[in-house]
């Protein structure tokens, strides 16, 4: 009888966990854009943390890449600007697959890190430093969603700047697309082909314009992209990653999880 009770308890525990997940999914409101691919950007904080911010930005980028691999999504790099000591200033990717926006739409905002710097990143050792980075998540519009008139578009070409692996060459293959009426800018320098860079830059530009339009339609004061970027200050954080205490805290829902290394694996 005791054995049967243990088996029944395990089965009921599994069913309870499954029902809890289904309940949470039901409570989260559906979005017409949930099935869309996304343009995801990561950017290091500007004023606090210095090298800490740039290193953390690279780790967050790797986390999203790992999560995309876990979900079997396509991860197409558009822009990657490296920093010193292996960090990243800014990166932009297109993630496509099943319900990508549904899974990533709440990642946008300021993320804060608390850790003791690694050797070589700072001369002030043995105390916890704090830095921030920003995640921007834009649903990828379909071509029918937004059209850009040729007279409203300016295409600039320039030479790739950073250490971008195979994409960097000695020709002016990098592309910057500017939407003249709004001043919205997008660029890509990851491919050797100027045509590929142009196509990628236009995808990002359409996504930014589309999100801006959607923001106005929802009567928001600012476009969603600017809301996600904010001032990149610590007061606007949505999540804190405390490496010293092995803890990740989501401030929006007061949820705490442990095992930060596993969390950063993105799986």
TrEMBL record:
InterPro entries membership: PCRF, Pep_chain_release_fac_I, Pep_chain_release_fac_I_sf, Prokaryotic/Mito_RF
Taxonomic superkingdom: Eukaryota
Organism phylogeny: Eukaryota, Metazoa, Chordata, Craniata, Vertebrata
PROSITE patterns: RF_PROK_I (PS00745)
Key words of the record: Protein biosynthesis
Protein name listed in UniProt: Mitochondrial translational release factor 1
GO function term, MF aspect, one: translation release factor activity
Biological-process GO terms, alphabetical: mitochondrial translational termination
Gene3D superfamilies reported in the protein's UniProt record: 3.30.160.20, 3.30.70.1660
GO cellular component labels: mitochondrion
Family: Belongs to the prokaryotic/mitochondrial release factor family.
Domain Prokaryotic-type class I peptide chain release factors, chain residue ranges per copy: 159-175
